[in-house]
Amino acid sequence: MSTDWKGRCLCGAVQYEARGAAFAQLVCHCRDCQRASGSAGLPVVVVSAAEFSFEGEIRTYTITGGSGMPTTRNSCAHCGSLLFGTPQHAPDIVTIYAGSLDDPSRFRAELVQFTSERHQLDGREPGIAQHAGRAP
């Protein structure tokens, strides 16, 4: 199996590739990631910035992140899909948002961070009805 990571936005205008193995795979539950993704937490694949490339027009948004330093979120300029981050505190990495991967089944969280900010938004609580397809 390839160690490369490939993905794209919803409309296909932006594609990216990271060559090589991931440094880490995690889920971040910080409020910034919740708000940026509109979900309970953001699954992230951490890769080498030197081995990352993308094609297409992106829109950037920079905010002070959980590190206390600026971090930039990159999304498709056309459809708005959130694709990857470039944190200033670690310029040698890129954080790929795993939902944009061509094969998201490769994602395997090794750790979860900012659990103090986790909310019940993810719906994986025992006793909640689960449906493989659209709920009836």
TrEMBL record:
It holds the Pfam family GFA. InterPro entries: CENP-V/GFA (IPR006913), Mss4-like_sf (IPR011057). Keywords: Lyase, Metal-binding, Zinc. Residues 5-120 form the CENP-V/GFA domain. Belongs to the Gfa family. This is GFA family protein. It comes from Paraburkholderia ferrariae.
